[in-house]
Design goal:
The protein is an alpha+beta fold and 158 residues long. It is built from four helices and seven strands; from the N terminus they run E-H-E-E-H-E-E-H-H-E-E. The strands form two sheets. The chain has a five-stranded mixed sheet. It has a two-stranded antiparallel ribbon with strand order 1-3. Helix 1 packs across helix 2 and helix 2 packs antiparallel against helix 4. The protein binds adenosine-5'-triphosphate (ATP) and magnesium ion. This is histidine kinase. Keywords: ATP-binding, Cell membrane, Kinase, Membrane, Nucleotide-binding, Phosphoprotein, Transferase, Transmembrane, Transmembrane helix, Two-component regulatory system.
């Protein structure tokens, strides 16, 4: 299904912003221009839901969560960035492995299974994109993913 990415992303961010109980501010850095993505909207919603849930789970009181996207090499590059506890350098790439959780004690108290980002990676790769994380311990974490886009709804083949 072709959807306009800004609209699709905004709807998900709005849903979290309305229902969140934490004192965390949402900051949107979204371009106005229309970019269309041909996606399974249920699956992409699940991916973004998990990334935002993680960001909220690890955000400190009074922190920000930043939402943005930019265009690089004919792909949309989406980023969701928090001011949370971060992830030790040596573990950053492992958060996309099945059942991997950075700290078992911390993870147990936070709930969850450790599958969210493994599923996210599978779904993003199925859509022709990539997903990765950048993190600084004690500073925060940014999750990036890419998706191929079109500039109009019809795609390339008209
Ligand atoms: P599930 O998503 O299945 O409920 P989960 O959130 O623990 O469980 P993932 O979403 O796959 O699993 O994340 C894996 C691990 O990566 C988390 O347990 C956590 O240790 C770490 N992690 C993910 N996102 C962040 C973040 N924004 N800040 C700090 N650590 C994170
Ligand atoms: Mg998760």
């Amino acid at each position: 299904e072709f959807v306009e990415f800004n609209k699709f992303f905004t709807r998900i961010i709005d849903r979290f912003e309305m229902s969140k109980s934490q004192n965390v501010e949402f900051v949107r850095l979204l371009p106005e221009k229309s970019y269309y993505v041909d996606i399974d909207t249920d699956k992409l919603t699940q991916v973004i839901d998990n990334i935002i849930s993680n960001a909220l789970k690890y955000s400190p009181d009074g922190g920000n969560i930043r939402f943005g996207f930019t265009v690089h090499d004919n792909m949309l590059r989406v980023m969701i960035s928090d001011d949370g506890m971060g992830i030790p350098k040596e573990n950053v790439s492992r958060i996309f492995d099945r059942f991997y959780r950075v700290d078992r004690a911390r993870a147990r108290s936070m709930g969850g299974t450790g599958l969210g980002l493994a599923i996210a990676r599978e779904m993003i790769e199925t859509h022709g994109g990539k997903i990765w994380a950048e993190s600084e311990e004690g500073q925060g974490t940014t999750i990036f993913f890419t998706l191929p886009y079109e500039l109009d709804e019809a795609g390339d083949w008209e």
